[in-house]
Amino acid sequence: MAKNNTITFYDLALSTGATISPFVWATKYALKHKGFDLDVVPGGFTGIPERTGGKTERLPAIVDDGKWVLDSWGIVEYLDETYPDRPALIPHPSVAALTRAMDAWFWKVATGPWMRCFCANYRDLANKEDHEYITHSREIMLGKKLEDMQAGYEERLPGISADLEPLRIALREVEWLGGDGPNYADYRIMGSILFTASVCKTSPVLADDDPLRDWIERCLDLFGGLGRHPGLFPLFGLPHPENGQELFAPQGQGGIHKRNTGVDSTRAESEKITQGMSKD
Ligand SMILES: N[C@@H](CCC(=O)N[C@@H](CS)C(=O)NCC(=O)O)C(=O)O
């Protein structure tokens, strides 16, 4: 399989040349993780069925030595099953379960909301021949005119940043979601962040000092700077709001980071939450 170590990869890109789709970005990283070279078939939204010989209306799609594989998750399953001697994308069933959960959460709090913040840019940055289709289809998807949906995005961006705290917690004590090295969990979330970078022309989405920055920069650098496409827009530079709204929680949230090592570690909190209670 994979003649000359090369797999044919159907891209979905904007007029900037940057890949747009989160699914397609995650798949690009997955193929590189497996050590393959990509024979990229370029293109935008118009003519996917024609480009793929009627095989699909949606991308990503790959062809491995004549074998078509569709769907980002299907491609990952195929790659791990067909090439078990190469680095695993999903090294354990728990990674599949947790990646699906994390992806669904991220879609709800970030991918979808960022899409609504930049949906008019999305259309304007697409190839000219895609504009009519994107306007029509995305207005049905979003239930509003794209300009009306995008309006007021500046007020929404701080809340989206704040909602990413679970990802910050996950990356507080490990280098990668995959642990010592990246796996498909990293690529899946990064795919959505790269989607955002392809359309966030009107504003960065995260603060310069966001704790996620180190992980994001390392993901961008992987595989010879795969994520550093010149058509992408800056992710960092969102100003801290003057009203004091926090873009991230410096101390972390939730229970896990507050490790209970005995009464010394909980005394301050106990004193605070029992203030005013009678001592008997
Ligand atoms: N379940 C599919 C979803 C793929 C998908 O929805 N791709 C979108 C791009 S984000 C697409 O090809 N859209 C083409 C269109 O809207 O015509 C997968 O994981 O690959």
From TrEMBL:
Residues 97-219 form the Glutathione S-transferase UstS-like C-terminal domain. It comes from Croceibacterium atlanticum. Residues 17-87 form the GST N-terminal domain. The lineage of its organism: Bacteria, Pseudomonadati, Pseudomonadota, Alphaproteobacteria, Sphingomonadales. Residues 249-280 are annotated as: Disordered. This is Beta-etherase. Residues 266-280 have a biased composition (Basic and acidic residues). InterPro entries: Glutathione-S-Trfase_C_sf, Glutathione_S-Trfase_N, GST_UstS-like_C, Lignin-Degrading_GST-like, Thioredoxin-like_sf.
